[in-house]
Amino acid sequence: MELGWLLWGAAVLLLLPVLMELSPAVNFALRIGFYYLLFFVCSALTAPVCLLVNGGRTVKNMRIIKTVVKTFKYFFGLRFEVKGLENFEVEGPAIIVSNHQSILDMMGLMEVLPDNCVQVGKKELMYAGTVGLIIYLGGVIFINRKSTSSAKMVMAEVAKTMATDNVKVWVYPEGTRNCTGDLLPFKKGAFHVAVQAQVPVIPVVYSSFTTFYNPKKNLFTSGKIKVEVLPPIETKGLTSDDVSELTDRCYRTMRATLFRLSGRPGE
Ligand SMILES: CCCCCCCCCCCCCCC(=O)SCCNC(=O)CCNC(=O)[C@H](O)C(C)(C)COP(=O)(O)OP(=O)(O)OC[C@H]1O[C@@H](n2cnc3c(N)ncnc32)[C@H](O)[C@@H]1OP(=O)(O)O
Ligand SMILES: CCCCCCCC/C=C\CCCCCCCC(=O)OC[C@@H](O)COP(=O)(O)O
């Protein structure tokens, strides 16, 4: 019986590289499955450490989470080329906005995440098993995207407390993943919060993943991701009437940067 299992295991191990080579679908499934597994297992292992070190839900846990997630890139042959980190060095809180292409973004997020920075996430993530637990412990702010009123209330609370808590808040203004190499229209919530709190908006742009990652084509290989932190956009003196213009300005700047970083001709 044992010999049978041993032979079976050896056959799979020998066949796997061949299968991955022959079938992009198998390669994609195994690599993305391993990514999920990494998240699931590392979350289970990191949660007790966060509880022991910091006692509960606090942005301080993001340091521990960041240390763990920054190792993931090595498993997938991904490299980050980062520019402009000095733009995070603003006095006090800020709203950080970035493009959002895939769950692989979590590696890019942790690659540059400044201290005392929490993220805004869809509330469904709370139920993602051990990952839900660890992102709760990391201080992630959960919103219900399906209820604008409740999401606005949560965001309004963030605008009030981010100054006292001295935290930066990272928002994905596209509101969903988008791996087309372009930007979706921006939701305005992040910009309302920045104006309400009178804090700067710091745009962050990641180059397009399309050269190494495309779920529709079962493409997931190694690759280089360029990251650029852009200069802060001040909101002092702005009011809610200025939010649309602020959103559009940020969108245009980030889209031009995305095209530049991705080697795509601008429009
Ligand atoms: C060891 C392993 C560990 C691994 C751990 C990994 C750790 C990191 C985890 C990080 C998780 C990250 C997850 C990311 C996501 O989940 S992305 C999806 C969720 N994010 C968002 O949706 C982005 C934020 N969304 C918004 O800000 C929206 O604006 C929202 C507030 C939700 C409202 O959306 P919606 O109604 O769809 O559209 P609009 O934005 O156009 O708003 C409609 C009108 O309302 C006005 N508005 C919006 N917000 C506000 C506000 N805060 N105050 C006042 N008014 C507001 C807006 O102006 C629109 O009105 P007008 O059209 O202007 O009249
Ligand atoms: C015991 C219960 C087990 C439950 C199994 C859950 C296992 C979960 C394992 C890994 C989950 C990895 C998720 C990492 C965080 C991903 C953040 C992210 O990128 O979410 C997508 C969100 O931005 C936008 O969502 P949509 O594009 O709108 O959709």
UniProtKB/TrEMBL annotation:
<keyword id="KW-0594">Phospholipid biosynthesis</keyword>
<dbReference type="GO" id="GO:0006654">
    <property type="term" value="P:phosphatidic acid biosynthetic process"/>
</dbReference>
<feature type="transmembrane region" description="Helical">
    <location>
        <begin position="35"/>
        <end position="53"/>
    </location>
</feature>
<comment type="pathway">
    <text>Phospholipid metabolism; CDP-diacylglycerol biosynthesis; CDP-diacylglycerol from sn-glycerol 3-phosphate: step 2/3.</text>
</comment>
<keyword id="KW-0444">Lipid biosynthesis</keyword>
<comment type="function">
    <text>Converts 1-acyl-sn-glycerol-3-phosphate (lysophosphatidic acid or LPA) into 1,2-diacyl-sn-glycerol-3-phosphate (phosphatidic acid or PA) by incorporating an acyl moiety at the sn-2 position of the glycerol backbone.</text>
</comment>
<keyword id="KW-0808">Transferase</keyword>
<keyword id="KW-1133">Transmembrane helix</keyword>
<dbReference type="GO" id="GO:0005783">
    <property type="term" value="C:endoplasmic reticulum"/>
</dbReference>
<dbReference type="InterPro" id="IPR002123">
    <property type="entry name" value="Plipid/glycerol_acylTrfase"/>
</dbReference>
<dbReference type="InterPro" id="IPR004552">
    <property type="entry name" value="AGP_acyltrans"/>
</dbReference>
<dbReference type="GO" id="GO:0003841">
    <property type="term" value="F:1-acylglycerol-3-phosphate O-acyltransferase activity"/>
</dbReference>
<dbReference type="GO" id="GO:0016020">
    <property type="term" value="C:membrane"/>
</dbReference>
<feature type="domain" description="Phospholipid/glycerol acyltransferase">
    <location>
        <begin position="94"/>
        <end position="209"/>
    </location>
</feature>
<keyword id="KW-0472">Membrane</keyword>
<feature type="transmembrane region" description="Helical">
    <location>
        <begin position="125"/>
        <end position="143"/>
    </location>
</feature>
<keyword id="KW-1208">Phospholipid metabolism</keyword>
<dbReference type="Pfam" id="PF01553">
    <property type="entry name" value="Acyltransferase"/>
</dbReference>
<keyword id="KW-0443">Lipid metabolism</keyword>
<comment type="similarity">
    <text>Belongs to the 1-acyl-sn-glycerol-3-phosphate acyltransferase family.</text>
</comment>
<keyword id="KW-0812">Transmembrane</keyword>
<protein>
    <recommendedName>
        <fullName>1-acyl-sn-glycerol-3-phosphate acyltransferase</fullName>
        <ecNumber>2.3.1.51</ecNumber>
    </recommendedName>
</protein>
<keyword id="KW-0012">Acyltransferase</keyword>
